[in-house]
Amino acid sequence: MILVTPDNNNRWVYTMHGLEKPMDHISAGGVMAGSVATLAVLWISLQTMGFLGQTGSITASKIPISIQTYLATYTGLFAGLPSTDYRHELVIDTAGFNKRRLPHIHEKALNASVNFAQTLVNRMSRLEANIANAGIGFSEKSPSYGQYVHSYPSDDALEYGTDAVIAMTASSYLAQHHCQRFGISNDECARLVSTLKLHGTPLGPSCLADQFADCNADAKYRSIDGSCNNLENPRLGSALTAYTRVLFPQYSDGIKELRRAERKRKLLPSGRAVSLSLSVAHDVIDISKTLAVMQWSEFIAHDLAHTPMRKMLSNREPISCCHENGGMLSPRHIHPDCAPISIAEDDPVYGKHSVRCMNYVRSMPIIRPDCTFGPAEQINQVSHFLDGSTVYGSTLKKSRELRSFQGGRLRVDIRNGNTYLPTADSEPSSLCHSKEGCYMAGDARVNAQPQLAVMHTIWHREHNRVARKLAQINPLWNDEILYQEARRIVVAEIQHITYREWLPVLLGRSYARNAGLSTGKSYSRNYNSYDDPAVSNEVATAALRFFNSLKQGKLSMPDETRQFNNSLQLSDYFYNPRIIESDDVFDGLLRGLATQTCQKMDTNLISDITYKLYKTDGEWGLDTISLDIQRGRDHGLPGYNHYRKYCGLPEAKTFDDFLDYIPLEMVRKLRTLYNHPNDIDLVIGGMAERSEDDGILGPTLQCLLTEQFVRTRRSDRFFYDSVTQPHPFTPEQLAELRNVTLARLFCDNGDNIARMQPNAFMKPQLGNELTSCHNVEAIPSVDLFAWAEKAKAYR
User: Fold this and answer.
1) DSSP classification of residue 246
2) CA 680 to CA 691: how far, in whole Å?
C-alpha cells in the first residue's frame, strides 16, 4: 500500500507499506525477491502517477524504461539494497505546493461534505421523475438501445455506483471549499483530496478493500469473480472493482468533469468532428494478418474489461441524452449523467438526417480502491484476470445459469443437428433484436455481431468437448470435478493462445520476447502478490480499442477451398446474431476469420462502425470513434502526449514533434483539430502511430499493452504455467497445453471444418499452408489422457 502525506516542508511523502505478516516461512531468496518486487512496484507507482520523468527512447528491440524497471530482478537499479527493508520513503517536490501551506481539512468537514452530497443525490429523484414523465427515452429500434445493451450495468454495479456518486459529489464540495481560497489549481487540489480517507465518514463501510473474504489458500480452482486470487488482498482484481491508472486523471474540475483543452480549459473538439476529419473510408488491408487478430482482440478485451453506463438513481431507468431522432434535448430534460456528442449541421452523414446529437451516458463510477475522496474512478463489471469470464461469467449466479449440471458440461441449444449457446431469458442478453431471442454466454456482448458470437460458441463447445473426454477418461469424476477441470483447461488454453500466438502478432515477436511475455518450455516462477492485477483505465478505455481499426464491413464466408462465394454485411447484424445458425454460415464465418485479411492499423475505420454502429431499421447508427473519444474524456484520461512521455518517447512541444511516429498528413489534420499537442486524445494518437517491425501497433499502445499483460500474468496466482499455484499442472499436462493453437480450436469445434493453416492469425502462405485438421503434427492437439487420474485423489 502506498501512503501519500505532506511533510513539514510541504513536500509529498510516498510511503510503501509492504509485508504485514510474519515472514518466518519465507526463505532468504524469497525475502530478497519480495523486497525487490516491492521497490519495483513503488517505482512504477510513482511513474504512473506522473511524478517521475522518463528517459531513453523506444525501438522495436528496446522496451520502455518504465517496463524495464518493472522487469528488473536482483541487479541494476536495485543492486545493493538491503533485503529486509520493507518500508521505503521517497520525497517528491511538487511545484504547486512547495511555497505555500497546504490547507488542513478536519474530519468534521469530511462528514459535512458527505452529508451535503447525500442531500443532493436524494434531490435527484424529482429531476428524474420529470424526465421520465416527459417521455424522454429511446425505443428498441434506436441505435441508443444497442449502446445501452452493450454497456448494461448490473444491479450490483448500480449499488456500488450510487455510493461512488456521493463520494464524487463530496469530493467536489471539498475541492470548492478548501482549495480555491488557497489558490490551488484543480489538478493539485485533486491530489490533495485523494489523500483524505473515507474511513470515519458514512461512506467508510462501503469500502471494498475492507470487506471480509474467507479464502482457502489451498483451493485448486480459481473463483468465478476473481476474488481470493490474491490472498493478502482477496478483493484485488475481482469483478466490480475499479480500474487502476497509468497516469493520474485529468478532469477539468480535478474531480469528475470531462477533460478539457490545455489552454484555459477550453472545450476540446467534438469527438464526431475528430472522427470525421481523421477517419476516411479508405480500405488498406494488412497483407499478412487475418481477421482472427481482430476477433481475438475483441474477445480478450471483453474478458478483461466491461465498463457499464449509468442509470437513473431513483428509478433505475436508462438515461437518454438525445431525442430519438437525433435532436438536442431541452436543458430541463438533460440528466446530469449525460455527455452527448455534438454533431455539426454540415456533417456529410448525419446532417442530411438533421441529427445534431449522439447519445453518450457517462460511465458508472466506483469508490476509489484506496478508500479515499478524490477523482472519479470507473468500475469494471468483469474480473480483471484473463480467466475466461467471457465463457463462464464473472458472478456465481451467471456461472450457474450457464451450467447443465450434468457431466460438467455447459447448457446448449441444439439446432439443425449442431449445438449453440443457450437462449437468453433475462437482461441484458434478452434485449437484442433477434425474433428468436439472443444467446446467453459469460458476457452479454456475445450478441454484438456474428463473428463474436462464433468465437464465443467455439469456446462453449470446447468446454463441453473437454468435459466429455475427461468423463470418458475418469468415469468416477462427478459433475463438479468435471466442470472445474474442464474450465481450468479452457482458461489455460485461452491464456496460452493469448501469450504464445496473439501478443507476438500484436507487439512484434522480438518486443514480446524482450518484455518477458513469451511462454517457455518449463514452469514460470514470476507470480508476485504485490502486483496489482487491475486492468488500467487507459488500456480498457483506449489501448484495447485498437481492434476497431482492424474490422471489415463485408464478412467473407469462404468454402473449404477458400473461395469467397458469400458474405454478410456487418451493419445488418448488430445484436442480431442468429444468422450463424443458417446453412454453412457458422463454418463460413469461421473460415473467414482465418482467411480474410484484417484492415491495416490506422485511424481509417469502416463505415459500419463510424456511422452505422447499432443501426437497426434506420439509415444511421452511432460512431464508435466518437464514443471512444468521449469515453476517454469522461474517464479523465490525460492526452496522448503524456503517455508518449511515460513510454519513453520525447514529449512533443509542437505538433511537428509527432512526426517521429505519426505520418505528416495525419499531423497536419491533428493541428487543425486540436489547439495544443497535449489536447490529442489517447485513443486517436495511439491509433495514428506507425507500427515498428513485425507488430501492428505503434510504440505508445505497444508500451501500454505490454505493461498490462506483464501485470496480468505476474499478478495471477492461478496462471496456467505458474509453479507457485496451489496445485500446478503436472509436467505432462503443461506440455500438452502448450500444443493448443487457435487453429486447433477452429478444427475441433467448427461444424465441419476440414482444413486450417497452423497459425490462424496469419494468412495461409508458404510455411503456413492449409493442411488437414487430422494432421496433428502440423496442428497439434491436447492429449487429455494426461489428466487420467485415480478417483481416490478427488474423494
Assistant:
1) S
2) 19
Following DSSP, what letter does each residue of 498-518 receive, concatenated? IIIIIHHHHH-HHHHHHTT--
SS3 assignment, position 792: helix
**pLDDT by residue (tens digit) across 316-372?**
999 999 999 999 999 999 999 999 999 999 999 999 999 999 999 999 999 999 999
3-state SS of 541-579 is HCHHHHHHHHCCCEEEEECCCCCEEEEEEHHHCCCCHHH
Give the C-alpha distances (Å, rounded to integers) separating 444 from 312, 421, 423, 452.
21, 12, 11, 11
Residue pointed to by grid coordinates 493469448: 498
Model pTM above 0.85 = yes
Q: Cα 442 from chain centroid?
A: 16
The C-alpha atoms of residue 270 and residue 665 are separated, in whole angstroms, by: 20
List, as own/partner pairs, every contact residues 130-135 make where C-beta atoms lie below 8 angstroms and the sequence separation is at least 24, other chains included: 130/332, 130/333, 131/312, 131/333, 131/335, 132/312, 132/315, 132/317, 134/333
Residues annotated as catalytic are: 302
Separation of CA 678 from chain center = 24
Q: What is the DSSP letter of 67?
A: H
> CA-to-CA distance for 737 and 493, rounded, in angstroms?
7
Where do the structural domains in the chain lie, given as residue ranges?
Answer: 2-92, 107-248+321-380
Q: Give the Cα-Cα-Cα angle 603, 663, 349 (nearest 5 degrees).
A: 35
Angle between helices 271-278 and 624-634 (to 10 degrees): 140
User: Which H or E run includes 90?
Assistant: strand 87-92
> How many other CB atoms are found less than 10 A from the CB of residue 597?
17
Residues whose CB is less than 8 angstroms from the CB of residue 75 and which lie 6 or more positions away in sequence, other chains included? none
Give me the DSSP letters along 596-608: SEEEPSSS---HH
CA distance 339 to 360: 5
Distance of CA 518 to the CA centre of its chain: 21
Q: What is the 3-state secondary structure (H, E, C) of 183-226?
A: CCCHHHHHHHHCCCECCCCCCHHHCHHHCCCCCCCCCCCCCCCC
pLDDT at 63: 55
In the block, residue with C-alpha cell 502478490: 529
Q: What is the pLDDT of residues 122-147, one digit of tens each?
A: 999 999 999 999 999 999 889 999 99
Question: What's the rounded Cα separation, in Å, for the pair 354 and 358?
Answer: 12
The set of cell numbers assigned to 208 is 471494498
Are 448 and 575 in contact, with CB atoms under 8 Å apart? yes
Classify 309 as helix, strand or coil. Answer: strand
Q: What letter would DSSP give residue 422?
A: P
CA–CA dist 591, 607 (Å, integer): 24
Q: Give the CA distances from residue 270 to residues 336, 338, 680, in Å, rounded to whole numbers and listed in that order.
A: 19, 15, 12
Q: What value, to the nearest 5°, has the Cα angle with vertex 251 and ends 197 and 117? A: 50
Task: Tell whether the model's pLDDT for residue 379 goes beyond 90.
Answer: yes
How confident is residue 209, by pLDDT bands cut at 50, 70 and 90?
low
Confirm if 694 and 747 have CB atoms less than 8 A apart.
no
CB burial class (10 A; 0-12, 13-18, 19+) of residue 525? exposed
Cell of 588: 463460413
Quote the CA–CA distance of 333 and 340 in Å, as a whole number. Answer: 13
Between 81-90, 688-697, 708-717, the lowest mean confidence (pLDDT) is in 81-90
3-state class (DSSP) for residue 280: coil
What kind and span of H or E run contains 43?
Answer: helix 28-48
| Residue-level pLDDT at 116 | 95
How far apart (Å, rounded) are the C-alpha atoms in residues 476 and 501? 35
**CB distance 571 to 621 below 8 Å:** yes
> 201 forms bridges with which residues in the sheet?
none
In whole angstroms, what is the distance from residue 308 CA to residue 310 CA?
7
E-state strands within 359-502:
365-366, 377-380, 413-415, 418-420
Tally of CB atoms within 10 A around 752: 9
- State how far the Cα of 456 lies from the Cα of 653, in Å rounded to an integer: 45
**Residues 683, 497: Cα–Cα separation, whole Å:** 26
